Amino acid sequence: MQKNQIIVIIVAAVLVVAGIGVYLLATGEDAEKKGLYKLNAVVTEVNMGQCSATPGVIVTLEDMYEAYYGDLVDDTLTIDDAKADTDFWKTYGTWGSLISDNGDGTLDVTVSTSAKGDETMTMSVCDTAVVMGTMYSETMYFLACAENDVEVYSEESYTNAGVKEFLSNAITGGMIYSYFEDYDVEYMLKCVSESDYFDLGVTSVQKVEPETLASALEDAMSDGNNAVYFASGTRMTADYYDNNVNPCKSTGANYAFFGPTTISDVFSCVEAIGCIMGFDDETIDEVIEDIQLRLYKIYYSVESKTSGTTDTTYAYWESGRGSTVKSSMAKVIVQYLGFDASLLDGADHDLESLLEDNPKLLIFYTNDSRTMDEMMRVDQ
Predict the structure, then answer these.
(1) pLDDT tens, 164-186?
(2) Per-position DSSP letters for 150-219, written without gaps between them
(3) What pLDDT sits at residue 254?
(4) 3-state DSSP call for residue 299?
(5) Residues 111, 258: contact at Cβ < 8 Å?
(6) Of 54, 140, 149, 276, which residue has the fewest beta carbons closer than 10 angstroms?
(7) What does the pLDDT read at residue 9?
(8) Reduced to 3 states, what is the DSSP secondary structure of residue 24?
(9) In a 10 Å sphere around its CB, with 0-12 CB exposed, 13-18 middle and 19+ buried, how is residue 110 labelled?
(10) How far apart are alpha carbons 138 and 143 in whole angstroms?
(11) Residues contacting residue 181 through CB under 8 Å, at least 6 positions apart
(12) d(Cα 61, Cα 349) in Å, to the nearest integer?
């Protein structure tokens, strides 16, 4: 059986393609009901890059919601409705700012790493960026789409002159370009030419070569550009801090490292990245408010559909290695959708225990090389 095929007695497949994957309702034919098919659970496939604290997480949430619950309860809700719901707004609608305008053409940015904790970087608005991590490039893409009044992940956004010009000029290099090919990161593939991109050849700050990074930053600073190096602060432990920071100091480039772990952190990072890259307040607010409203529609619907229920409903989220994921954001996602996240512990769960736990939602990554039968443990 191919990965995207599940044979069912009653065809109940919900196909949602929104740039991040395909979702299938597995009621299982499964005349013999082997492996995880016995659970008759909803099976979803999600893009790994859109399961962290990035603007794209809203698409993951929307598609997972639709795969499991169906239509929104009320698609006419407004941002005023969201703000009036104090439980929602206090928990998910507000955020702490990471940036302040000094009034002299400079910004103070709170950056964070595992090695040093919080630090304040003072910088001017940047023209170009070397980007390690799709969180940063995707945020820049969302902002560029808002500025040019086009829908994210649409064909129009990939051909829009303003979006293409901004991304191609602003993102001069960063993580290995083949990552975008492997994960179908269309906004990068269609807007940023590989021939004009300084490829660092790695996907993690823990593998960065200081000399290569320095060269990439010098390239980004050519023609007098003010450049910034965006990278994950979460993975930047003491062993890797100097390799990532010293090239910035030696070349005169700025650096901004963030470690978002919650939905509210998405807004903090959108604001900070947007200000650093010169987007105006109106555009930044538009992106944040759009995400807030879409989040609220899901929140309202989940609350409506689960109100009065007392049964524990588990979600099971498996990495390509066969063990469960354990990231804080993955737990936030499944809990936001009304599921118990206790199975997301990074451990191996055998078939027998999973059948006993009876999760109603099974989550896999779109880049998982296994067939669906392999992921569903048919041979066990």
Answers:
(1) 999 999 999 999 999 999 888 99
(2) --TTSHHHHH-HHHHHHHHHHEEEES-THHHHHTT-HHHHHHS-GGGSEE-S-SSGGG--HHHHHHHHHH
(3) 98
(4) helix
(5) yes
(6) 149
(7) 32
(8) strand
(9) middle
(10) 9
(11) 189
(12) 24
* Angle separating helix axes 134-147 and 263-276, nearest 10 degrees: 70
Contacts of 270 (CB under 8 A, 6+ apart): 55, 139, 142, 143, 284, 287, 288, 291
Burial class of residue 32, CB neighbours in 10 A (0-12, 13-18, 19+): exposed
Picking from 137, 133, 136, 151, the residue whose alpha carbon sits closest to that of residue 18 is 151
Q: 94, 87 in Cβ contact below 8 A?
A: no
Q: Is 35 left (phi over 0), alpha (psi -120 to 50) or beta?
A: left
pLDDT at 7: 35
User: CA-to-CA distance for 117 and 96, rounded, in angstroms?
Assistant: 16
HSE-up (13 A, CA, CB side) for residue 111: 25
Whether residue 333 contacts residue 58, with contact meaning beta carbons closer than 8 Å, is answered with no
Q: Residue 173 corresponds to which tokens in the numbers above?
A: 């290099």
Cα–Cα distance for residue pair 18/3, rounded to 1 Å = 18
Low-confidence ranges of the chain (pLDDT < 70): 1-32
pLDDT at 33: 80
Pairing of strands 171-174, 198-199: parallel
> Taking the model in full, what pTM does it have?
0.88
SS3 assignment, position 98: coil
